[in-house]
Fold this protein.
Amino acid sequence: MGESVLHRVLSPLLTLTAEPPEFVTIPVESVVDVLVDLSTPDDLVEPGFHRVRYNGQELRAFTRDIAETTERV
């Protein structure tokens, strides 16, 4: 089951919009919602994209980038 978990950005986080595809850099100290599967302890280890929400906008970020540049709040 997916849940939204807050993460604080520790270094700029590069994300991508869906349509039209555009890069969005989320600045340091921002807080983003990350959709995670809480039944999988290492959900942010699997490669690929994760959905994140920032300022009401749905974005995609690489799993590795989320794991390396954010911390759970």
